[in-house]
Amino acid sequence: MSFDIHGKVALVTGANRGIGKATVESLIQHGVTKVYAAVRNLDSATSLVEAYGDRLVALKLDLNQPDTIIQAAQTAPDVQLVVNNAGILRNANPLADDAIAALQSEIEINVFGLMRMAQAFAPVLKANGGGAFVQLNSVASMKSFADFATYSASKAAAYSITQALRDVLASQGTAVLSVHPGPIATEMAQDAGLAEIAESPSLVSEGIVAALNDGKLHLFPDTMAKQIGEAYQPFAINIVEADLMAG
C-alpha cells in the first residue's frame, strides 16, 4: 500500500535525537507540511522548533505513560503519518543478574508502547483517510545478539505486533512499514559499544520516505540490515506477506 508523504501531517516519537531527529528532517525536506515532534521533555525539541518554525510542533509523549499517548492523539487530530521511533535498549545477556528486569523494561516501552501508540492513533489515521504507521524495529527482531538478548526479544515481539497491525489496519486503508536497521550512529549505538560500525541515521530516514512511497512492508536500510534483508526476503514474501488463511 503506497503512501506519498508530500503535503501530509506527521508525528514522530523520540524526535529530538538520532533516527527520530533525522526522520523529522527528512520528512520536512520531502514535503510534509507539519511534524509533531513527540518527546518526553519539551525542552529537548527547542532546536527543532527554532529550525522549522510553525512547520514543527513539540508535543509531550512518553511511551511509558499511557495518558500522554492518549493526550497526544487528542492534541494532534490531523495526523496522517505516525513514525513510532522511540525505544530503549538494555545490555543484558540471558544469564545476567538484571536480565529479567531489563526485559521487563524493554517490553514495557518497545512492545506495550507500540501497542498503545497503535491503539491511540489508528482512529486518528482512519479519520484522516487511512495514512501510514511506521514502526522502528531492528535487525535484532530477526537475529538475537547475546549481549543484547533481552532487547532482541522485545524487538522480536514488536515485529510480531507490527505484522498483525499490517493485517488489522489494512481494512481502514492504513499502510504499515516495519523498519529494521542494523547499527546506526545514535546514542543508543554508542552506549551499546557499536559506534565503530554504525552508519548514518539518514539511511533510515530517507529509506522510510522511499519505502512508504513504494508500498513496502519491510525496510532494511544499512549494510548489516541489507545482508539480513536479502536472506530474509523469500520468507517475507512467501510467509509474512502471504495470506496463509486464504487456503
From TrEMBL:
Give the source species. Halomicronema hongdechloris C2206
Signal peptide feature range: none
Q: State the name under which the record lists this protein.
A: Short-chain dehydrogenase family oxidoreductase
Does Nucleus count among this protein's keywords? no
Q: Which InterPro entries match?
A: NAD(P)-bd_dom_sf, Sc_DH/Rdtase_CS, SDR_fam
Please give one Gene Ontology molecular function term for this protein. oxidoreductase activity
Instruction: Quote the Gene3D superfamilies the UniProt record gives.
Output: NAD(P)-binding Rossmann-like Domain (3.40.50.720)
Listed A to Z, the keywords are: Oxidoreductase
What superkingdom does the record give? Bacteria
Q: Does the keyword Transcription apply?
A: no
What family is reported? Belongs to the short-chain dehydrogenases/reductases (SDR) family.
- List the lineage, top down: Bacteria, Bacillati, Cyanobacteriota, Cyanophyceae, Nodosilineales
